[in-house]
Amino acid sequence: MTTADPGGPVWPGDPGWPGETPGQPDGLDDLSVPADVSSGAGTSSWADPNDVLRVEHLSKRFGPLTALVDVNLHLAQGEILGLIGDNGAGKSTLLKILCGFQAPDTGRIVINGQQVALKSVDHARSLGIDAVYQDLALINQLSVYHNMFLNRERVRWPLLNNRSMRQTARRYLDELGVNIPSVDSQVASLSGGQRQAIAVARAVYSDAKILLLDEPLAAMGAKEVALILDVVRDLKRRGDVSIIVIAHNYGQVLEICDRVNLLQHGRIALDKRSSETSVQELNDIVVAEYRRALLERQRPA
Fold first, then answer.
1. Whose CA is closest to 256, among 227, 220, 286, 285?
2. Do 119 and 247 share a structural domain?
3. How would you write the chain as a 3-class SS string?
4. Could you tell me the maximum CA-CA distance found in the chain, to the nearest angstrom?
5. pLDDT at res. 219
6. 17, 84, 146, 278: most buried by Cβ count inside 10 Å?
7. Does residue 33 share a domain with residue 101?
8. Domain count of the chain?
9. Are 183 and 275 within one domain?
């Protein structure tokens, strides 16, 4: 079993880890958790002062439910960070806090070296943070270009400047390598991958510098996944947008992300460069947690 160093952090499976009783067998000796796993607590000395985003000691509760516990996270300029974890681990809550939809109970958010208190989604957008959710917030009955400029319509009084919006939408999509035959098409006629790409393009070209993608690859076929991965790679090559991607497919995360954070029970349980970890390691950590939960359910009250 992995043993904590004196004075160092406590790893899952060690005496002192929440839910563990010293001297009581946990049944996990044959599947120890890698020594890089930490609770996310501690100082922010790991953070680069040039990070575009830093989250320090963030916590969030909803009544008796603890969603986030002392979360530390950082994002560099042009970096893609994969945020993974089981359902209920706190990923969506963290995303909602970062986009201004919810306020944390404790901790602070630092954007480009300046501490901020995000008051709303619009406030976060004004600071260059935008989120793309699974439902995409697109209107199926409107055209591609109208959706690209939704709530930011160009007007040539007293009418909409459709020609300008149409030409600009076409240019934006072409720059991102998104193949949509006509921007006059209704969004309802497009594939899931094309709709996701439109939502990403709309956020990027609204001057977002920090882009939060909530499950952008969920329920997509291979061709649609390839389209979105290409869009993300293109944004990475440009280097002017930093991205946090929430995803469940570890292989896809390691393919497109520079670094991976694993959330468990509201804590950052792992923070590694993608080149320094593997699907096997990530699976081992999650399997160990499942086994621990099963053993706890089987213990007599």
1. 227
2. yes
3. CCCCCCCCCCCCCCCCCCCCCCCCCCCCCCCCCCCCCCCCCCCCCCCCCCCCEEEEEEEEEECCEEEEEEEEEEECCCCEEEEEECCCCCHHHHHHHHCCCCCCCEEEEEECCEEECCCCHHHHHHCCEEEECCCCCCCCCCEHHHHHCCCCCCEECCEECHHHHHHHHHHHHHHCCCCCCCCCCEHHHCCHHHHHHHHHHHHHCCCCCEEEEECCCCCCCHHHHHHHHHHHHHHHHHCCCEEEEECCCHHHHHHHCCEEEEEECCEEEEEEEHHHCCHHHHHHHHHHHHHHHHHHHHCCC
4. 76
5. 66
6. 84
7. yes
8. 2
9. no
Q: Given this model, what pLDDT does residue 119 score? A: 94
Q: Which residues contact 280 (CB under 8 A, 6 or more apart)?
A: none
Name the residue with higher pLDDT: 77 or 88: 77
Token pair of 82, please?
A: 């994969």
